[in-house]
Amino acid sequence: MNTLHKLTINLAAKARKRVLRQGLSRVWLRCRSTVENPPGVKTMPQFTVPTGILGQATCHTHPHLIQPGYLTCGITQMEYRERRETLVNKLVSEMENTHQSHIIVIPAARKQYMSDKIPYVFRQNSDFYYLTGCLEPSAILVIVKPAQTDNFKSIMFVHDKDSHAELWEGPRTGCASAAHLFAVDEARPVESFGNFISKITKSSRPSMVWYHNESPANPDIDSAVRTALRDGQASLQDPQRALHFMRVRKSPAEIELMKETCYIGSQSINMAMACTKPGVTEHQVNAVLEYTCRQGGAEHLAFPPVVAGGPRATHIHYIANNQTLAADEMLLVDSGSQRWLYNSDISRTWPVSGKFSKHHRILYELVLAVQKRLIELLGEHRPALDQLFDSMCRLLGTHLQQEGIIPKHVDGNELIGKAYRLCPHHVSHYLGLDVHDSPLVRRNSPVTAGMIVTVEPGIYIRPDDETVPAEFRGVGIRVEDDVLITEGDPLVLTEACVKEADDIEAIVGKHSM
What we know:
Layout: H1 2-21, H2 24-32, H3 77-94, E1 101-107, E2 113-115, E3 118-119, H4 126-132, E4 140-145, E5 153-158, H5 163-169, H6 174-181, E6 186-189, H7 193-203, E7 207-210, H8 222-231, E8 235-237, H9 240-247, H10 252-274, H11 282-296, E9 300-301, E10 306-309, E11 330-335, E12 337-339, E13 342-343, E14 346-351, H12 358-381, H13 385-402, H14 412-422, E15 452-455, E16 458-461, E17 475-478, E18 481-484, E19 491-492, H15 501-507
Helix pairs in contact: 1-10, 1-11, 7-8, 10-11, 12-13, 13-14
Domain Aminopeptidase P N-terminal: 75-219
Protein name: Aminopeptidase P N-terminal domain-containing protein
Keywords: Hydrolase, Manganese, Metal-binding
């Protein structure tokens, strides 16, 4: 375990150096520039981060996590403000009535409890975080844009300072510092939200309230919004689709954060490979994944990982992770890390013994060849993800037929259907603040630069599948990378994660638990 500890500390040090080194210098220089703007260019307000102990880490209290002048790691107050402005412009442009006022309500998540007084680890609502950088629970962002004006006002509702509550739950930012910290126009106590939303809807007629009321992030404010809609005779629209179309294309700062979380997730899987041996349990491999991610700088894993040996890998979302690994099994791992709410999502499959059997290697290299070709197609044609899925089915079918796993006489739609039966999940999804990011952006539109997507073909052959030769049964294989779409060739952000068969054999089992 000492060897593992030393290796993961080295990984963490490398990760932190890369945060400081890659890309952030451009942002830093932009923030520090003293050159005057050219004529006609609007001067943007400059922001500072308040000192003191607040409700979340800042560059003053946690300089090892956040660079000077940034609200959250790598992202400035200005960027969050610009996102709010972009959202307002997008929503207003969707409406033809210029005489309407617009009231946008985006709540933070509330705390969730696993049992009495025992909370789950808090996870902020991604839409709220994207617009504010605020990590405190139960806060509310309200943006008010009066009719026939380009101006808007941002108001944050937060829990005010309370010495008794803070004794138990930790420091709060409070109203006095929240406006300064989050670069909004005004901050108010969260308890005043109901009265505020009621008054503003009545005084802003006709008004459009933008609020996601299906499975709201904080149901505690739902009744107040509904009452305001009724009493103020306001219309209701959902802002989430516009937000998802914003979030699906990453800013340069977000791309740097994604590079970091992908690197951390990649190294954690490499370490899991190195610690895999016959007799090790899936649970122990799971522990290596989590330990290495946290040592590398992640808050925690992005999701409960799949650590599935042998035929258990044919259950695509197997997360029991409680079996002992046998020497003749393949091990499928689907894992990722979360760093500053940005997620990686990586799958690898390797032999527990450290050596591929003949038939396992055939299947593995088949899946790997399909995956590599799909990544090439992303660069060559910028297809929609649904088209990429069609390409996967065709490629898988052809390769499986060449290996004699699917009969030679099968062709056309029947061949695609048989391939789909062996890989019944989609080949790609968007990735970012959520693992399945921006779900309201449908997968039938061509990908564009700035998007990050997964590419994850697989094969799952049940032990009782008599349509497949016996030597190939009882195994699940998936190879998944996270890919940045650029103006040129796609960039594989998880390239640090070993995936060539020979390289896998060189690393598996080389370190003890």
